[in-house]
């Protein structure tokens, strides 16, 4: 989340006339994250989040994201509920950009990550995988290997000498992953963005999962890998084994990993690391002028990737 599209109070008041949500009290931009513009909207009835979609989200994918969240809400999964306007529409337009209004989830991210957070996150992720098993809509992963390669070529074309060593490092890893990537693992709906900013807690108890705009159909274990990289490394990007064990325990409370998933986990973790490394490098090289948030450091994921290159994660599953 971030603020790329400033709006005035007058523009917002005009927009909110489409909804039956009370009168506007205040609104403020949310600066965390990098994908879309987000505002916290407080009205006389409740608190909401207004998301304005920026270039990275394809407009044709929006119905999938909205329907997925509605599906999960019906399953009593703690995630934002899309709010329909007076005409019954959930996808609207503000200043020429598509947007949605969603319910506000109480809670906040964990400032310090402990084992019990990781166990809950694992449990939540497997719950999501189970609760979407009967969701009929499908969306191809827009951040698959082909897109990694496209992003890499764009970063390479920037010809920035500061990142030449990193470009070479990524090239070699992409060549490795092209050969080693698995092709026959359990698939389903994945969130693909269960980072610490997107998981809320109240008094150290899980209270909600947000930001479903990378959700798609892919290997369930790839979702696990993305989440391990986000939660099982400390602030110095060192692997924390007990966090990992807690996460796996929480996940397997609902769904056991298959032997093939376990044997493929190291490769998936490397792919999960290269995905974030590439998008962070891209955002560093092509940071929009006037954005109110600084892109995250790609070097953090270099250390995570190097860890996975040197060990077999299956050894930690025993």
Would you list the SSEs in sequence order as H and E? HEEEHEEHHHEEEEHHHH
Number of strands: 9
What is the overall number of helices?
Answer: 9
Task: Examine the secondary-structure arrangement and name the CATH architecture of the largest domain.
Answer: Alpha-Beta Complex
In what range is the share of β-strand residues?
Answer: 5-15%
Poorly predicted regions = none
Biggest sheet strand order reads: 1-2-3-5-4
Topology of helices and strands:
Layout: H1 9-16, E1 24-29, E2 37-43, E3 47-52, H2 62-74, E4 91-94, E5 97-103, H3 115-131, H4 145-157, H5 164-180, E6 187-190, E7 199-202, E8 205-209, E9 216-219, H6 220-231, H7 241-252, H8 259-285, H9 299-310
Antiparallel strand pairs: 1-2, 2-3, 3-5, 4-5, 6-9, 7-8
Overview of this structure, please?
This protein is of the alpha+beta class and 318 residues long. It folds into two domains: 9-103, 2-Layer Sandwich (Phosphorylase Kinase, domain 1); 115-317, Aminoglycoside 3'-phosphotransferase, Chain: A, domain 2. The chain has helices at 9-16, 62-74, 115-131, 145-157, 164-180, 220-231, 241-252, 259-285, 299-310, and strands at 24-29, 37-43, 47-52, 91-94, 97-103, 187-190, 199-202, 205-209, 216-219. Helix 6 (220-231) crosses helix 8 (259-285). The protein is globular, with a radius of gyration of 20 Å.
